[in-house]
Amino acid sequence: MKKALITFSLFASTWSFAQNQLHQVLVVNEGYFDYQTGQIMEPVTIGSYQPSTQVYQVVDTLENMRFASDLVIDGGYYFVAADSKIFKMDLNSHQEIAAITCPGVRNLAIYQDKLIATRGEYLTTYDSYLHVYNTTDLQLIQAFDTVTGPKWATQNIVIDGTTAYLVVNNAYEWGNEKGIIGQLNLSNLSYGNEVDLGPEGKNPDNLVKFGSSLYTVNNKDWTGTSISKIDLSTNTSSTSSIANAISGCGTSALRDDKIIYQISMENTLNDFDLIGMNNVGPVSGINLNFYDLAQEPLSGNLYASATDYFSSGTIYIYDASNTELNHFEVGVAPGTIVFDIRSSAGLNNANAAQFSISPNPSNGMLNIYGQTENAMISLTDLRGTLIQTTTNNFLNIETLPAGIYLVHMNGMTQKVIKQ
Predict the structure, then answer these.
(1) CA dihedral 288, 289, 293, 296 (to 10 degrees)
(2) Which pLDDT value is given to residue 7?
(3) For the chain, which end, N or C, has fewer CB atoms within 10 Å of the first or last residue's CB respectively?
């Protein structure tokens, strides 16, 4: 079980494309641990890929770690969840800043100066499946016991406002899998308001946010795959079964307005439409068995990793039409791909003021706020096809099909969702 929710750092405003650039792609190579002999055959490594030069290099090796399961970026640092430890690293030098022991650590998320960590381990029972640390020195702030926090092994995290939503799947106790979304109030560090996804929503292996809802990809009781939708306004859920076989271990990702996923051992990627809540067919042009999937948020390119789990790993890059742009060799079992996005230089002119859009998502009128006077505002689809232009501070998208569109103004771009 590994992380599939991809995290990225924005040093300017979210989705302000023209003011941001992809600095590097960080890859967590889980390595190869032989459970029969108890030996680490290939160590956990962190790699950095430079898109500008197309050069990949190993920047750190995490010795004595059996595996790694997550990486998140926060400002000039990144944090790695690896087996029994959490590491804080410098984003530029990749030097270790701090480390803390946390057996069974699985996924990480950042909120202000707090690092949220979920826990779970095969054949192991813990008295706490949820920890909160200080990001400065990794000192423990709070460990929730199984009375005040999740009762079972916990995995993926999505933060929305002041709430951290947690997957509670108990995936490491065979035959007793759970399907629960828990909520951690980040203002007062209290846990509660769990949403049960029902019998068809057991064993969530991924958690993403799209629009005003959360979505999980579930392996159920290891006999099939389903996708659940959690309405954040009502805390209610609905589930659609999509296959009679399990999806790959974390092999799913949010790609525009769809979830792409792969059934274990297959070479076909599949599209699940989040607006219609239905399968819309296989992804054409891609025919490989993958381990991790991640969409790079600026270009929309898809990064997909492949591995034999003991000797090799490769990452492939595809554009929106699923044409392979490049591929590069990495370490064994590249299971987490994270995008380091930073502010571009030389854009500090008056016309580069930020703008915002509300409501978003919308089913009608978009109001545009910021330096809009006499500015040309245009709306395109994800392929760049021009739909409409205006010099007013609003756009009407009522007649457009549901999906994701781009609003452009003063050299900046933001995504909007038509419901």
Answers:
(1) -20
(2) 40
(3) C
